[in-house]
Amino acid sequence: MVEVMRRFDMGSAGFYPTVVHRKDRKTPIGDKWFCINFGNQKKAFVWQGSKKVYRLASGYDDVWVPQQPNDGDLVVEAAALEGPAMWIDPAIIDVIFVHGELRDALKAAGVARPFSFKKCKVI
After folding, report:
1. What gap in Å lies between CA 38 and CA 73, rounded to an integer?
2. What is the 3-state secondary structure (H, E, C) of 48-115?
3. pLDDT tens column, 63-122
4. What's the whole-model pTM score?
5. Which DSSP helix (H) or strand (E) runs through 122?
6. N or C end of the chain, less CB within 10 A?
7. Shortest CA distance to 98 belongs to which of 27, 40, 23?
8. Distance in angstroms (rounded) separating the CA atoms of residues 100 and 105
9. Chain-centre distance of CA 81, in angstroms?
10. 9-22 pLDDT, tens digit each
């Protein structure tokens, strides 16, 4: 997965090697695991027009939570397509955004399943 991601503009995102152990906390699982520091933030989420999102409890300024979105349920501004291929948006929690080209490359490599990618509507 990391090899695929490194072919794209990842901006401030970083990949840090780590060791994953079995339940016994001694036996390593595989030999190549990485933690991702997403590092990139864009303010492009548009709650108006987005579906299956609800506003976080009062006291927060425009922070949204998705509820099992489908393709086209989340809306982002076209400016989001510029710059790094992976980012988070401070206006919506529990969502990692990626460019379509990165999604396609991860799918082609057979490593996209953990992400549960959904297409966004771009305006």
Report:
1. 23
2. CCCCCEEECCCCCCCCEEECCCCCCCCEECHHHHCCCCEEECCCECCCCEECHHHHHHHHHCCCCHHH
3. 999 999 999 999 999 999 999 999 999 999 999 999 999 999 999 999 998 889 999 999
4. 0.84
5. strand 121-122
6. C
7. 40
8. 9
9. 14
10. 999 998 999 999 99
